[in-house]
Every structure is written in C-alpha cells, then in structure tokens.
C-alpha cells in the first residue's frame, strides 16, 4: 500500500443514488463509471499512493476495480455511504468528489467533507453553491462583465410566457449535464406548467464546447478545449465529444474560460466551464453557459492527451502549486460511457 491515501467518491456508484432511485441512477451510471474508473486508475498510478473508493452493493453489471493499491469500501445504503465517506475523509491525504449538482447534492457533500479538514481536489463549497443554481451563476458572471445568455426563472406552477423568444431552452436551476433540459421550438406553443423552478434561455446558435481548468496555484491552468456533441429533439441529449477543438475556436474558448477563471479566485483543483462559440469569427457571440465544479466526462479524453499525469497536476494545483501539464494534439472522440477513440491518421 502507498504512503499517501486518496479517497474517491462517485455519488451514483458509491451508495448515494442507487438505493434511492435505481431508474435515475441507471441513466447516470455510465458517465459515473467512466469518470470513477479513470480517476482510480490515474491516482493509483502515482508513486506511493493508495486509493480508496465507495461501491454500492446494489450496482448491477460492473465489477469494482481492485488491486494491491486500490481498495473498495462496500456500501449498503445512502446513510452508510455518507458515514463511510466522512470517516475515510478524516484519514485521507486528498479527497476527490464526483457528484451531480442535482438537489444540491454536490454542495452538501463538499460542505460535509470540508468539515473534516480533508484536502479537496475540487472547488470549495462557496463555489459549488454558486454553480448549483444556474440563475445565480448567470447573474454572478454577468456582474463580472462576462457574456451569459439572457434568461428568466419560471416559478413552479407557471409556464413559459408567450412573448419569450423561441426556440427556448428550459433547464433545471440545479441540473447537471443534459438531465431535465427541454426545448420549446414552436412559436405560440406554451408548455405545461413546470413542476419545479426552471431557467428559460434562448437556444443559442453555435458550437458547444467545454474547458477544464486547474486552479489553486499562482495562475489557473487551462486544459485544451473540447467539443461537445449535444443532440436536440424535444430535450437535450449528451452524446460525448471530441478533442481537441480546432483553431481558432480553441483560442476563443480558452480566452473566455480564462476570463471565467479570473472571476472565480476561490476556485481550487479540477473544474470546468461550458460555452457556446457563436457564428461570429471575432467571438462577439460567444457565451458562458454554466460552471462544472467537478470532473466531467471530457476527463477521459484529457487524461489520454496529457503527456504528464493529469491526476498529479490536479493534486498539486489543489495544494497551491503552479502546474504545467503538457498535452498532445492527437484527435480523439469520446462517448458518455468513457470510450475513447483515437484517430492517428489526422
């Protein structure tokens, strides 16, 4: 076993969701498995490091990874999951939390783990709380002079006003990924009253992109931007993405992501930002869509592209060190389930 211990908690597979709602958990499980498996492999590969992680006994279909330096903690209920997480966090050298913002789950987990004094490899609770409310996020970023889509909150029991521009996007205030995002594309058509508050925004033309950021050192470090594949019908469907984003789109994405990082000096560890790069070549129609205060699926491609250890860079950044991970430019596509397809001919 290594001298240093990293605790990795993935909410879907680690006991936080399967026992409460197997159907929703099954929807999210492939992405959770992709991120968990990649993180376990990367941190276990570091010298003198052992990895602990939580694994729900109810999870069907996957075998938990195990080795001499990788130890699963078997979980039987959500209550046991939280108790075990906090117990192990007190003795861990670092903790990586992977959980959705839905229902402020991630914010609550971060606050609880912060109370143990553990080193978090992701943003602090204050930033997670901000990112867990899409309307508050937009207001904060707009106040920092950053371009965000215009929008309004639709209260519970109300519906999208007839004068709101179509096509429109309705998304949960505390959503994660594409879950619960609906498209209203017919002029004059009014959807049924919403069951929970939603944020309405116009559907923006352009290319969806994401940028992962490492914060905590003297200067934030941007990973190469990735393209996101979002399929629309009556709702949004995330179908993976590709790396790297072609120039000059990559330059525009990095420039905007750097401005977001500057507006969030409290950020630490690994996090990311979703963008839409609009049709104007000068970037005047580019927008910040939301913050991701955690690992996202693009990590599975970025770790392959990183010539150094991306896990080590995350840890060092969280410790306040300046990091400089190097990345190749080999084109890769990745699926929501974590499959990475390399194209060596490009």
How many domains? The number is 3
- How does the helix and strand content classify structurally? alpha+beta
Q: Which residue ranges are poorly predicted, with pLDDT under 50 across at least 5 consecutive positions?
A: none
* Straight-line distance between termini: 41 Å
CATH homology superfamily name of the largest domain: ATP-grasp fold, B domain
Which CATH top level class of the largest domain fits?
Alpha Beta
Q: Name the CATH architecture of the largest domain.
A: 2-Layer Sandwich
Order of helices and strands: EHEEHEHHHEEEEEEEEHEEHHEE
Give an account of the 3D structure:
The protein has 346 residues and is of the alpha+beta class. It folds into 3 domains: 117 residues, Rossmann fold (3-Layer(aba) Sandwich), CATH 3.40.50; 155 residues, D-amino Acid Aminotransferase, Chain A, domain 1, CATH 3.30.470.20; 54 residues, no CATH class. 27% of the residues lie in helices and 26% in strands. The strands form 3 sheets. Strands 9, 10, 11, 12, 13, 14, 15 and 16 form an 8-stranded antiparallel β-sheet that branches. A 4-stranded parallel β-sheet has the order 3-2-1-4, with helices on both faces. A 4-stranded antiparallel β-sheet has the order 5-8-6-7, with no helix packed on it. A hairpin with a 3-residue loop joins strand 11 and strand 12. Helix 3 packs antiparallel against helix 4. The mean pLDDT is 92.
